[in-house]
Amino acid sequence: MTDQDAPPSTTARTVLVTGATGYIGSRLIPRLLRDGHTVRAAVTDLDKVRGRWWADRVELVRMDVLDAATVEEAVDGVDAVYYLIHGMGGADFALKDRASAENMAWAVAAAGVGTVVYLSGLVPDVPEEQLSEHITSRLEVERILSGASSGTRTLTLRAAIVSGSGSTSFEIVRQISERMPVQAVPGWMDSRVQPIAVVDVVEALAGALHAESESRSYDVGGPERMPYTTLLDRYAEAAGLSRPQVSVPGLPTDLVGVLAGAITDVPASTVEALVESLHHDMVCHDVDWTYDLLPEDYSLVGVDESFRRALALPDESVPVEERDPLGPMPGDPVWAGGQGGGLASAVAGARAVVTGLTGRLRTSPR
């Protein structure tokens, strides 16, 4: 069975999707509608969602997760909540993550919501004091949702690199590959990653509603593990690019994050947070999710196929609701999409490196 063939659910529910206009949320909502669920889409700005093709098929509700009153109103009367909210940058992102999770945990407990499904990040097998700020915050949110939501079943899906056009991690790989004719790779960047196609993430999220397990976390990843440098090679091959790699020892993590943020169009704070996580293997510890969350005989999408489908240009003659979610979709971030890897991309990358280094030197203490 493929990601496009999953059968509809026989148990329809009323479901709140937070982060509805985000990358995952905007692809999950059509999947839930196909299953026959009643979807309530929570957004901070109603105007930003009205152009989506599914907007007239869902109940739209304005919710600011830092405003407890709006959270309480949003969860009232729903059977399940998808928590797809992540802070990725700024000095206070962990504080906001904590406050947001506490508001949601209190609201779902008070409303008697049956299930919360949280999409988090893979937690490497290292002591917690060695985790990045990004992963530490995700783990804290998971514990708040699981511990404070008394009586609510909380299922956390932990994913690392999500592959698909418009995905933050995919766009970083795409734009670095296009804009760096020679890839200077830090000597410490030999950790393994386990990418997962966005269609497989969405399938697992949809299946979590009907999983028979009690509150727990699931590591979700695709069928292949590889060093991050190999992932860059695989992307370059899929995109038809020649990108030799040069290992550079001694590059500090923060400098790599600054340069990667300068090279790409992805928000710099997001890039820096993700780079910090690459010091450790980001791979699944088990395969329980494939049994508990996916339909029988479901086939996971491999890395090369996910890249091929993500890079395919959309057929404008095909209705949006019938397009491949791995490819570009209306509403994806404005910084998504590549420039083709030509001379202009290389020049842009070189300028970005110079700009990043100059900014680094100017802000370094003397």
UniProtKB/TrEMBL annotation:
Query: Which Pfam families does the UniProt entry name for this protein?
Result: NAD_binding_10
Cited Gene3D superfamilies: NAD(P)-binding Rossmann-like Domain
Q: State the protein's name.
A: NAD(P)-binding domain-containing protein
- Give the highest taxon in the source lineage: Bacteria
* InterPro entries reported in the protein's UniProt record: NAD(P)-bd_dom, NAD(P)-bd_dom_sf, NAD(P)-dependent_oxidoreduct
**Where in this chain does the record put each NAD(P)-binding domain?**
19-122
